Amino acid sequence: MTAVEFNNRIQFLIPSLEPFAMKLTKDHSNAKDLIQETMLKAFSNKEKFTTGSNLKAWVFTIMKNTFLTDYQKTSRRKTFIDTTDNLHFINSTNIEQKNAAYSNFAMDDIQAAIEDLEDIYKRPFVMYFRGFKYHEISERLNIPIGTVKNRIFLARKELKQILKVYEM
């Protein structure tokens, strides 16, 4: 495979890498950095790719390994060594305990806010929240997919307004 063919094929993989990067990093900018680092490693190691094997799996493996390596480096930076006689490792991050009552109040308010939604907004929103895809909701409620998306959007908007006190 020529370098141009390799570059063209690998460019088409970027849209499929984005969800995986988001799943790993849980942050949009970190996900973009991870994709960029993955692409750099793939381009610089293209001679290690075996023609005929699965390019997508190869690139996903690079991404996973890059993420794990960076995660381990970050974890090591947050740990320091106590040089006293017992020689044990202590994690330097702050430990914070929160009162569960606050989260119970928040959950009660969220449940009440969802219950107060109009039924035409509540049903699609709850189904989406439980993991149904837009097209599944559309089929089960017998409404167009655009209407499903609109009702979920409006339900979220109303819930954000009602639960504004919990914004951070």
Beginning-to-end CA distance, first to last residue: 51 Å
Total domain units? 2
Please compute the radius of gyration using only Cα atoms: 23 Å
Q: In one word, what is the shape?
A: flat
CATH T-level topology of the largest domain: Rna Polymerase Sigma Factor, Chain: A
**String of helices and strands:** HHHHEEHHHH
Per CATH, the superfamily of the largest domain is: RNA polymerase sigma factor, region 2, helix turn helix motif
What does the secondary structure layout of this molecule look like, with pairings?
Blueprint: H1 3-11, H2 14-25, H3 28-44, H4 55-77, E1 79-81, E2 89-91, H5 100-116, H6 119-129, H7 134-141, H8 145-162
How does this structure look, described?
This protein is mainly alpha-helical and 168 residues long. It folds into 2 domains: 3-79, Orthogonal Bundle (Rna Polymerase Sigma Factor, Chain: A), CATH 1.10.1740; 102-162, Arc Repressor Mutant, subunit A (Orthogonal Bundle), CATH 1.10.10. The protein has 8 helices and 2 strands. The chain has helices spanning 3-11, 14-25, 28-44, 55-77, 100-116, 119-129, 134-141, 145-162, and strands at 79-81, 89-91. A two-stranded antiparallel sheet has the order 1-2. Helix 3 packs across helix 4, helix 6 packs across helix 8 (145-162) and helix 7 crosses helix 8.
What features would you highlight for this structure?
Arc Repressor Mutant, subunit A, 8 helices, 168 residues, mainly alpha, Rna Polymerase Sigma Factor, Chain: A, 2 strands, two-stranded antiparallel ribbon
Can I get a quick summary?
It comes from Flammeovirga aprica JL-4. With 168 residues, the chain is mainly α.
